[in-house]
Design brief:
- The chain is built from four helices and 24 strands.
- By secondary structure, it is mainly beta.
- The strands form seven sheets. The protein has a five-stranded mixed β-sheet with strand order 5-6-4-7-8, sandwiched between helices. Strands 12, 18, 21, 22 and 23 form a five-stranded antiparallel β-sheet that branches. Strands 13, 14, 15, 16 and 17 form a five-stranded antiparallel β-sheet that branches.
- Strand 19 and strand 20 form a beta hairpin.
- The protein is globular, with a radius of gyration of 18 Å.
- The model has no long low-confidence stretch (mean pLDDT 92).
């Protein structure tokens, strides 16, 4: 804890940033946000604490945006659930906001007792559709209103949060090599991601499909303090192109932070267990304070 005037600041366990005391009493809110070309630019990704980008059908990715200490009046476009996003969401004991889902995802929501805020169930109490985009790329949500609906369902409660480790000023993980940019090759040009390190701001700037990836509300380019790349086993399971992705187990991982790259591993022992990322020396990776992708 750190004092600031008459307020006490506490460290957010997801970003390492110091925020007002009481903020951490909330339950994380995980929102499914789509990334098809017709869904861009998205709204509200800049305020998430942690963002997962994972392939859905085809060569298009989808985001799971986890909100804890900031809320947004407009997040989206919101899209449907898949089982491997639910596995990620369960790590955070989060409330899950989405619109429909695959049959496997719907079954998993029931089986695992997910704190579900499916648009099909709550509609206009927290979601709405805009007229300047075509469906299904036009559904948005207000995270404050999602929380209100969740509270009415008994979802809003104190939960155990993952505890990331954070670097202090001037500290670095051992064994890094200089790396000012990285490309995540998602097979199609419209999905390819390029991150470029800005040493002045100490963040990575995000580019997608060859252009700066900007927030739809403020026009500011999206950034990340840490970019974690996780390698998993994946396979196509139906004619639609839906995927099965192994999120439980072990594998290779790479961390980009502070303009350096670190080779490492990941491990996740069970469905609700936190995924740990650690270096070649076996020590847990420490992150720079800020948003992690």
């Amino acid at each position: 804890k750190e004092p600031e005037g008459n307020q006490t600041l506490v460290q957010c366990p997801l970003t390492g940033q110091f925020v007002k005391e009481g903020t951490m009493d909330l339950r994380p809110l995980a929102v499914m946000i789509e990334n098809a070309p017709d869904a861009r630019p998205q709204a509200g990704l800049d305020k998430a604490d942690v963002i997962y980008e994972i392939l859905a059908e085809g060569a298009i990715t989808r985001f799971l945006a986890v909100y804890l200490h900031q809320d947004v009046e407009k997040a989206g476009p919101v899209r449907s659930a898949r089982p491997y996003y639910i596995e990620r969401m369960l790590e955070y004991n989060a409330i899950y906001a989405y619109c429909g889902g695959s049959d496997a995802a719907k079954a998993m929501v029931i089986k695992e007792g997910v704190a579900s805020l499916d648009e099909f169930g709550i509609g206009r109490r927290a979601y709405w559709r805009v007229k300047d985009r075509k469906a299904p790329h036009n559904l948005y949500a207000d995270t404050n209103k999602l929380r209100e609906v969740g509270a009415g369902k008994g979802y809003e409660k104190a939960v155990k949060l993952p505890q990331f480790s954070f670097l202090t000023e001037g500290e670095e993980n051992p064994g890094g090599r200089p790396a000012d940019d990285l490309i995540i090759n998602y097979l199609r040009s419209y999905s390819m991601v390029w991150w470029e390190y800005d040493a002045g701001q100490r963040v990575y700037k995000r580019y997608q499909a060859g252009s700066p990836h900007r927030d739809a509300i403020n026009g500011i380019q999206l950034t990340g303090s840490n970019i974690l790349v996780q390698y998993t086993n994946t396979k196509i399971i139906d004619k639609v192109g839906r995927r099965d992705i192994d999120m439980v187990g072990r594998g290779e991982a790479v961390l980009f932070t502070g303009g350096k790259v670190y080779q490492g591993k990941w491990s996740k022992e069970g469905l609700r267990a936190h995924t740990f990322f650690y270096g070649e020396d076996g020590e847990i990776f420490k992150l720079n304070p800020g948003q992690t992708w």
